[in-house]
Description:
By secondary structure, the chain is mostly helical. It has one domain. The protein has four helices and no strands.
Amino acid sequence: MLLESIKGLGETLIEFMRIKIEILSLDIKESRIRFISLLMLGVFSLLLLSLGIILGVFWLIIAFWESDRLLIMGVLSGVILFSGMLMLTVFLWKLKHSPEPFESSISELNKDSAALGILAARDRRDR
């Protein structure tokens, strides 16, 4: 009877660890997919925006070649530099405020610990 209970406890612990490892592997896969998709999106958008800006600048310079080419070049340079600094600021803010890796796994482990009373017992012992 006791041996069967210990065996059942061992099977339960093994199943518990298997589920936690699956959750961790899903977190890793999601993080990798999110990173690759953001990287691809960033590279393609940077490529298309650069091409659009270059073509737009050439078009405006050609359009105002006779009258105000220096003014147009200066204004466009300022707008492009301001836009670049703004995008860099947004990028750094998003990088700073992005979710931590394995956040869902850690929260699940905390929920499990709370459900089992491990955290409460540890808090009582630390006092």
